[in-house]
Amino acid sequence: MSALPVDVGGGPVDVLVRMQDPATMEDPYPLYAWLREHSPVHPNPTGGVYFVSRHQEARLVMRDPAFRSLTQEELRAKQPRIGRSRTLRNFLVGITNTNRPEHTRLRRAMAPFFTPQAVETLRRGARQRCDALFAPVVERLRDGESVDLHTEVTAPLAMHVIADLIGVPEADRSSIAPLVSRTLRAAHPTADEAALREADEATLAIEEYFTGLVAERRSRPRTDAVSALANGGGEDGGPALDQAELINMLWGLWMAGSDSTTAAMDHTVLEVIRFPRAARAALADPDPEAAAGFVEECLRHEPPIWMAASQLVPVRDVEVAGTVIPRGAGVHVLIGSVNRDPAVFPDPDRFDPARGVPGYLTFGEGIHRCVGAGLARMEITVFLSRLHAHLPGLAPAGTPVRRRLATQRSFDSLTVALPGGRTSSHRLTPHPSKSKESERA
Ligand code: HEM
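# protoporphyrin IX containing FE complex -> structure
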């Protein structure tokens, strides 16, 4: 039996509070192990909220029609704060909190931009962008400087890829990119009025920007997602979405495309640093599956999202793993815990790129499964191959700065150095035989 990792004074474990504890933010896995063992469907003492930490039960609540997303009215009644914040409202009225048939309509509207072919067309741009971002960074690292990879590479890379997909012109990107982290201030567990105001100003600025872009593309359409969404897709040949839905969708894609993928790449950097031999072996292997296995294991081992955004509710009282979840109670899946469930992933804390066990829930499950999973995998794979080619022997320079968010496990900065500087063996241009990306060019 695993002991409770931090003393809680003998009271019931408040997962929401524990997840804001800096030690848990750094390493949530002891808490997750305790929950899986002692309280796999955990009634939080705050009341009306249950945390699901094991794989079997997580898949059940995410797939079973006995569970659905909250309606807008239920959300507003449950969380009055939503009414006071444009940002919270946007997060919660988006696609992740809709049910069929509305969900199907929204999902159909965005699906064409995330097909495997659509992702492939973005790969070349991602690769070029990645090299362009790495070039000055490599020089600085070679000169002995330390560099924040989050600010200099991963965040701009993710931003440019989603901007390419949506069709945000190059000249506009630098003004709307910084709004993402300001918007995310609303997702901080203790966001006060000032933080919500700042987030709302950023949200409004993003919305105004996309409103202008939609108008522009209606008059002069191009071959990008914003033109397609603004001008077609509906059964009558008109837009499938009304204006509010369209702006919310663009806002949501901008947020989702920027932050989660950045966090996944940041975690990949840390895994490469922690497991350099595994990284070298995976990337030197001529079989592309080896590099893919490394990416998959990074995604399982350190998922960038703590818990799924949509709050699920049972439509009737449902018993799960011996606990009755009453009708209408909120259910959250702890993704990081599910991915380390030993019932599915033997020796789950071990980082093993050859594991080859499917079923991690980093991208969710069921109807809300992440539409951008293929895109994210492509970006991480491109990034990893470039990282390894440009910067073998990378080391941390200081402690990575984690962002304090309720649902995301992401960073504000990730500073690294290159011990040995110019004397270490690395090259600026990836060698074709070492880079899976080059082989696929
Ligand atoms: C590694 C990066 C990413 C991770 C870990 C991730 C994770 C997730 C998860 C867990 C969900 C399910 C949420 C729920 O059930 O409440 C989700 C949904 C979603 N993701 Fe991602 N995501 C990533 C990248 C992306 C990207 C690049 C995009 C596209 C721009 C995207 C767009 C979406 C959308 C639109 C949904 C809602 C789908 C629906 O409700 O049908 N995500 N994502």
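# post-check
The two ends are 51 Å apart (CA to CA).
The domain at 15-439 is CATH 1.10.630.10 (Cytochrome p450).
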